[in-house]
């Protein structure tokens, strides 16, 4: 997988997405070969829903889960 979310020479254009894709590749799909695009889609959805938002602690959220962070902001 190869993505680019910014203009050439401007690495900070979309730092949040660059960080997300770095995490996705490093923690989940790095080196994995998918036989079909649908299998890749399911895997990415699983990463986002079950791991990234419910299991993975985020340094930008003071090492909290995104769902927990949102819940705390509402109270």
Radius of gyration: 14 Å
Low-pLDDT runs = none
Calculate the terminal CA-CA distance, rounded to whole Å: 39 Å
Helix coverage percent: 40-55%
* Number of DSSP-assigned strands: 0
Strand percentage: under 5%
Task: Describe the protein.
- This protein has 75 residues and is mainly α.
- It has a domain at 33-75.
- It is 53% helix and 0% strand.
- It has 3 helices and no strands.
- The protein has helices at 15-29, 37-52, 66-74.
- It is flat.
- The mean pLDDT is 85.
Topology:
Layout lengths: L14 H15 L7 H16 L13 H9 L1
Features:
single chain; 75 residues; mainly alpha; 53% helix
Question: How would you briefly describe this protein structure?
Answer:
The protein is mainly α and 75 residues long. It contains three helices and no strands.
């Amino acid at each position: 997988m190869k993505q680019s979310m910014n203009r050439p020479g401007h690495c900070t254009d979309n730092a949040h997405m660059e960080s997300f894709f770095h995490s996705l590749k490093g923690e989940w799909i790095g080196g994995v070969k998918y036989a079909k695009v649908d299998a890749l889609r399911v895997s990415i959805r699983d990463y986002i829903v079950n791991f990234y938002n419910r299991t993975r602690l985020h340094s930008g959220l003071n090492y909290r889960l995104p769902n927990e962070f949102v819940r705390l902001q509402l109270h």
